[in-house]
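Notes to self, EKC/KEOPS complex subunit CGI121:
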Amino acid sequence: MADASFLCKWLKILFIADKGGGVVKRMQLQLINNLLYRLPLHGKLLKHGVECHLILCPMIVSTFQVLVAVNRAVRALRRKSMTTRSVYAEIIFNLSPTKSITDSLKRFGLGDDDQNILAVVIDESDISTLVDKLNSQVKGQICMLEEINMLTDEENIIKTYKMKSSEIQKGNIEDSVISRMACKDFLVMN
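result:
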């Protein structure tokens, strides 16, 4: 039997986007703290065949928030209705409360000084090889996904998603964030 602490370090999900024998996507999330050498990391990963996206942890309230964004991105990919050019940019776009791709990438993408990231790997085949390549290139501490809420910047999230204090008192931040993400296509946030 596998050690429970090992199982919680990563999350692997199978998305079946088309039951008629079409696209099958697998996704894995990995939380990395105290990241070193951030600047060339994304290019370095692509050079070694690891297509992934690195998300800024302080803007994430839970893994469910990321799962919602990934699900929407995979569905848009299948329907050929993506707003962005790649499924990874589509994930970032879906995390944002606005319809601005540039704003989404600035708020949720990795910056020069960011040390805590959530790596998202999606592929149609077995992603274990990609994750092994990711781990060999990343210099940082791989952490339990449950620790992601300790890295959340609630003040910035409340400001970004324009939450009112009455809304926060009645519910929780995660529900408000996910509601805004899900309704982004229908509502315009001022």
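- Confidence is low (pLDDT under 50) at residues 1-10, 16-21.
- DSSP finds nine helices and five strands in the chain.
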